[in-house]
Design a protein that fits this description.
Its EC number is 3.2.2.23, 4.2.99.18. Belongs to the FPG family. GO terms for molecular function: 8-oxo-7,8-dihydroguanine DNA N-glycosylase activity; class I DNA-(apurinic or apyrimidinic site) endonuclease activity; damaged DNA binding; zinc ion binding. By secondary structure, the protein is α+β, with helices and mostly antiparallel strands. It has 2 domains: 137 residues, N-terminal domain of MutM-like DNA repair proteins, CATH 3.20.190; 124 residues, Helicase, Ruva Protein, domain 3 (Orthogonal Bundle), CATH 1.10.8.50. The chain is built from 8 helices and 10 strands. The strands form 3 sheets. Strands 1-6-7-5 form a 4-stranded antiparallel β-sheet, with no helix packed on it. A 4-stranded antiparallel β-sheet has the order 2-3-4-8, covered by helices on one side. A two-stranded antiparallel ribbon has the order 9-10. A hairpin with a 4-residue loop joins strand 9 and strand 10. The longest helix is centred in the C-terminal third of the chain and has 22 residues. The radius of gyration is 21 Å and the shape is elongated. It starts with a helix and ends in a 16-residue tail after the last helix.
């Protein structure tokens, strides 16, 4: 799933290539992906892309005041095409293509654009056409952005104070902190040397400061690594930069211990026992507790 660093890089990528260009058309292939009907998606035709923003994991193309907002969800991705002038008309089907955004051709007749694709059978990619991004429910309910100046250790202390949620779940909750998903929550907790099952409200001031530092540093480093990369290269860059996520059975680069995994019904987490749980192994079952 694309998380804050990848979505920020995609926003940067689109700013360089789409801003200033005219929208030719937005072709919706997977009709379930389009979550709004007024304004219609056809209203984007002829408008100029004036800006690209990120809201948590949402991408937002400002087209003369009308916004094309989309969320790639777990299995979605953005595929840039340098020239769509010869592309075949899109037709609803079983393929991964969900939406095609066509930009007006330049003087040489080259018409670039991008496609939103989604693998798998669980179709959760979502597209909205709105006058204000806050009209998108997922955007309106977002918590603070962890890379914003106002996200300070004091702000994090207010977030975790009194919260009985396990810290792993808190970090993934978009209504609490925007942009962190399963992968980077694993990375943040490893950097903070903290168990994923630690109860948020039990964090000391020192642990909160360490967690804040881990959040900001982990995300900023990932954003910096992704800076300037083409959209097609972001997945590989993300994978190469991960220290614990999806590395179960491999050696921890920090201490040399074996990275462990806890599996749930629809997800899993990875952690290092030496770095994070004082050498104890977490039970691999839902509602895990430390093994005695």
């Amino acid at each position: 799933m694309p998380e804050l660093p990848e979505v920020e890089s995609l926003a940067e990528f689109l700013r360089e290539r789409a801003v200033g260009r005219t929208m030719l058309a937005v072709d919706v292939v997977a009709f379930q992906a389009l979550k709004t009907f007024d304004p219609p998606v056809t209203a984007l035709g002829g408008l100029t892309v004036t800006g690209v923003a990120r809201h948590g994991k949402f991408l937002d193309l400002d087209c003369d005041g009308l916004h094309l907002v989309f969320h790639l969800s777990r299995a979605g991705w953005l595929r840039w095409r340098d020239d769509l002038s010869g592309a075949k008309p899109v037709r609803p089907g079983k393929g991964p293509l969900a939406v095609r955004v066509r930009l007006a051709p330049d003087d040489d007749g080259v018409a670039p654009g991008f496609e939103l694709t989604e693998a798998g059978t669980q179709k959760r990619l979502a597209v909205y056409v709105v006058k204000d991004p806050e009209e998108v429910p997922g955007v309106a309910s977002l918590g603070p952005d962890p890379l914003a100046p106002e996200f300070t250790p004091s702000a994090l202390k207010q977030i975790v104070g009194g919260n009985r949620t396990q810290i792993k779940g808190l970090l993934r909750d978009q209504k609490i902190i925007a942009g962190i998903g399963n992968a980077y929550s694993d990375e943040v907790l490893h950097a903070a040397r903290m168990s994923p099952f630690k109860i948020s409200a039990t964090l000391t001031d020192t642990q909160i400061a360490d967690l804040h530092e881990a959040i900001v540093t982990t995300l900023r480093d990932a954003v910096e690594r992704a800076h300037g990369l083409a959209a097609k290269d972001l997945k590989a860059e993300k994978k190469s930069g991960l220290r614990v996520h999806n590395r179960a059975g491999q050696t921890c680069d920090v201490c040399g211990d074996t990275i462990r995994e806890v599996s749930f019904a629809d997800s899993s987490l990875q952690y290092c026992p030496t770095c994070q749980t004082e050498g104890k192994i977490l039970a691999d079952r839902r509602m895990s507790k430390l093994l005695k």
